[in-house]
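README: folding subset

This subset contains proteins for which both the sequence and a predicted structure token string are available. Records are stored as plain text. Below is the entry for Integral membrane protein (325 residues), shown exactly as it appears on disk.
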Amino acid sequence: MAASAPARTGAPPARRVPALHRPRTLLATVLLVLGCLLAPPALATGWARAELTDTARYTATTAPLSRDPAVQRNMVTAITDGVMRRVDLSSLVDAVPPADRPAVRERFTRGIREFVATQIRGVVTSRSFPALWSRVNGTTHASLVTALASPGDRSVVLDLQPVVDRARARLVHTVPAGARLIQRVHVSGTTLVLLRSDEVAEARGPYAAVRTLGRLLPVAAVLSLAAGLLLAPRRRRALIGTGLGCAAGGVLLLAAFAAARGYALDALPPAVTGAAGSAVYDTLTASARLGGGALLATGLTAGCAAVLSGVLARRVRARRALRGR
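--- output ---
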């Protein structure tokens, strides 16, 4: 009796990678791992480079902050404090008996502070303030770029004098007597020190590194991932691994920005409140965090799509094997 043919199980035999493909597989693996490792820092440095070197982009990014209530309150308080530090009431209380001068000075100080805060608040909440905000931020960012890109001892400040000037102009048309009072007590503007000269000197090295890496790392990450996928003999498996690696990179990037948020808020200048600092940090990092979320979503989508295509391919092969019996 002739030997019967072996029964078909319906499952294809396991495919082994030919010896000639092993160097190619190794190279593809190295490239894909490198690309997954480079993806998070590439997004972070690309974002930092764009925000640090492009004044127009920075101005557009920070434009919504002009309508943020916490930022508005902080600005009113900071400007009012700066103005009150420069108020000289001596000429107003000289005519008062010496015994009454402390009480008179306190009442005058309280009244002038309320008056100044009201006028500054009127400017900050006006419809024309966003344009003024953009101009102030653009000037500040340009001075930051100049300080970081050139040698010398200089600090970076946020000059709020334009807001005070706008309040003066507003007073001229609304409360002329108030304007004369402000001029009489020698009110001037205020500035917020963002970076001291020693901090600027320390930041020049990281700034130069960000400018270089922000241009090179994104290109290197994309080329590594693309080359690795093209070289991989088993592209479905390579795509699954790459997707999971990119998803993990997205999670790490989001976690890094969440951790950096606490450090950034702890390092705020005394004149900046926590609520205003939180609004500024969240606004500035929104695009980077969006990139991290996109990396996570893209990685999961690519990995799931590769797994699903593999399941469908196995089912098609199984059906063909059953039909061939």
